[in-house]
């Protein structure tokens, strides 16, 4: 699913800090759940030219926030997600504290088993996430109803429409209760009603008071503004700015002064 062997042939420098949960009296709302420091990624075809796709990337993500990564085509958004796949591999082999169970990644491509039904997908992922069989059955029924897929429950997932496949894949990535969830273009190809359903579920899963963090890439400025705690803008593989929607508006919006006169 993650194609991790791809990274064997790539140059990838990384400095990654993963912050383990602290006790209540140690908690600091400003401390990130994970931070990247001076991360650089160079594809093999550009190795001799020393042309990085990701350049000295420094980012941190705080608990309880929904962080949107935005940028034009070619800005490095896809490579940003691939970098996190490498982070997943690094933690998978290096961690002895259970950190590897704290990260979930949902690719832009919908990865499903064509011969499993929608119901079987939800039930299987719930079981793999450590949920009991009894709870898995009730969760499956609840999600089928919430997603509007009750009529497709017994159908093979491969028969779903593109938007329904996307909804299913995004919801599957949330079942593990991971501390850090990475979504690549979660609402691409999804109709407006289904987008509202997905965002309601995402806000339910990632409230500010919870020790979970969602990082997503998106092309939709309106979705980032309406639903995300902070926004980071990538340009040529570098993070040029980040902040809340209002902070970015205050800093970069062009203000047009208007003088008006009213005759009485």
From TrEMBL:
Pfam family, any one: ABC_tran
UniProt keyword Transport, yes or no: yes
A GO cellular-component term linked to this record: membrane
Domain named ABC transporter: residues: 34-261
Gene Ontology terms for molecular function: ABC-type transporter activity; ATP binding; ATP hydrolysis activity; lipid transporter activity
Key words, A-Z: ATP-binding, Nucleotide-binding, Repeat, Transport
PROSITE patterns: ABC_TRANSPORTER_2 (PS50893)
Database matches in Gene3D superfamilies: P-loop containing nucleotide triphosphate hydrolases
Domain of life from the UniProt record: Eukaryota
Identification of the protein by name: ATP-binding cassette sub-family A member 8-A
Source organism of the structure: Caerostris extrusa
